[in-house]
Amino acid sequence: MPTKRKQDAPQNPTPARSLGDLVGYHLRRASVFDLQGSTAALEEAGLRPISMSVLCNIIERPGISAADICRVLGMQRANIVSVLADLEEKGFLLRDTDKSDQRIQRLYPTDGGREIATKCLALLAEHEEHLLRRLDASERVELLRLLSLVWQPLST
Amino acid sequence: MPTKRKQDAPQNPTPARSLGDLVGYHLRRASVFDLQGSTAALEEAGLRPISMSVLCNIIERPGISAADICRVLGMQRANIVSVLADLEEKGFLLRDTDKSDQRIQRLYPTDGGREIATKCLALLAEHEEHLLRRLDASERVELLRLLSLVWQPLST
DNA sequence: TATTGTTATACTCTATAACTATA
DNA sequence: TATAGTTATAGAGTATAACAATA
Fold first, then answer.
1. Is B18 within 8 Å of A134 when comparing Cβ atoms?
2. CA B1 → CA A40, A135, B4, B5, distances in Å?
3. Closest nucleotide over all strands to A28 (CA to C1')
4. Domains of chain B
5. Which chain A positions have a beta carbon within 8 Å of B147's beta carbon?
6. What average pLDDT does the structure give for chain B?
7. Residues 36-75 of A near strand C (Cβ < 7 Å)?
8. What is the mean pLDDT of chain A?
9. Is-contact B127 B144, C-beta < 8 A?
10. Whole-prediction pTM
């Protein structure tokens, strides 16, 4: 017995007739638009979007390892090194080698790190207000829900 | 009299409490997920997502110039050169210098170009079926609508 | 003076391979 | 052997500046 989809999504997907019919096209355009605005918004705080994401992870889960952040954010271990070095140099995080497994550096936010993160979230909220300017409150919630359904590997 | 939004979007945007509250975060994750799948899907046809987008523009508006494609897709004129060279080398497009303005090369699809584009749209439809596997038909339509509202500069 | 197509160049983001130290 | 952090490096994608030809 074949698994049933939520509603009958076409078994044989209907080929799009043009670029604009593809969700992926609009996804990319919207994401680029967002990234430009996010980058500009965070410039005032001296952070890049990726640094901000990494810092948020450290604040939300103090003691998290670099490898775990990479798994959460879907990035390569090699590419987080310079991000962490930058955040450390700016005094936004501390490293503490795990006592029982010396391969692992546990990462903790400093007070300054928490402050800058709060400021960045406010800057990003301002940017998102612009990003979502044509969507009402319920549409914003719905967009977030649909997007998370697209990429999140949760629930099977 | 201040312009009114669709519904009262907060005048003072509420800062998100974490990364996951930001639409931009989910936008980026979903877009990366899509791009990986699109790239893999098009690999079979020997095209990259950007080449496919450019070719679609030529098919949808035969005679379009490179500069116009760049304006439509939001890319730099410098960066379309190698894409067009590749498409031309593969026999998917023809260039014809405009008679009344010799700066402009009008671009036309070949039959082979139209064939490969049709094949690519089918491959992408298959990929999108996976991308949107957790969304029903009406949710897919709604996602596309909301995304286009985010990035499209249309209608003021 | 402005635009088209083009070259050269640099910078960011991402991906892979290999190393070391630990386990 | 497997994992964590790291280095080096290569590949995309994207950005700017400058040029010749044309308008």
1. no
2. 30, 21, 9, 12
3. D13
4. 48-143 (1.10.10.10)
5. 23, 26-27, 29-30, 143
6. 92
7. 39, 48-50, 75
8. 92
9. no
10. 0.92
